[in-house]
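Cross-check.
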Amino acid sequence: MKIAVIGTGGVGGYFGGRLARTNNDVSFLARGSHLDALKEKGLAVKSINGDFVIPSVKASDKIADLGVQDLILVCVKAWQMKDVAPELKKIMHDKTVVLPLENGVTSSTEMEDALGKGFVLGGLCRIISKIESPGVIAHVGIDPEILFGEFDNSVTPRVKEIKALFDAAGIKSAIAPDITAEIWKKFLGICMSGLMAVTRTTYGELRELPETRKMMIDLMTEIYDLALKAGVNIKAGYVDEVVAVIDSYPYDSSTSLARDIWEGRPSELEYQNGTVVRLAARYGIKTPVNEFVYNCLKPSEIKAGKK
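Predicted model, tokenized:
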């Protein structure tokens, strides 16, 4: 199977590296000094589960140069999707499967709108990782996992084939019984990234102070209530489960959205807290904590977009 990894950051670099390590035909989209390092030295992954190096990788900064692919893992930031999606058509055949691993509850449907019905699966991943230096990915927290599936939750032959591919590469994965619910469940947890950005805290700092811990829980409860209003199947008590998971994260770790905002880069704000605010207005419910976070960060997001 020919596999393209669109975006070789913390997510694409780690999972693409795992796939390349088991002799799959993997091509990477990257840019700048990161691309130069990949071409010169290959891809190095530093992981809490064991380091590894792919000494020679195929990489380009142009999607069309990657060639026609059987499976495309889309690992760019959510706000980059609109620019990437039309380019993917250049490397697709009539059976190509596109698996987006972006954050947010609209990424997969936006990709499907751009590419047409039948090509896109719903997907998400769990990992704390980043580019440590050009050509080097650092996986620093969470046991990496990919959840994916058809939007109608049927277990099709292509889903089974991808599951077998991940298994062979040593990637923990699961075919989700309800992929829409799983995407919303992750969304509920990641949207506290905006609160982390506002308070300029790590996971540990945010959760240990009673005042910010309460804000974190209230923010996630608002999203839980929104999901129920949208007809998503999430069980009672799920917010408590997410809090317990967050309590297990490394104290000094942070999220990519928070780091992007702190460093003045464009972030996924519109695909996280911004989406919550817009959907809440559509469904006629109040989300004051998410609205506060979104409104506080929007000016810096506008400035970052003008650079």
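The chain has a mean pLDDT of 94. The chain has two domains: 2-177, 183-305. Passed to J.P. for a second look.
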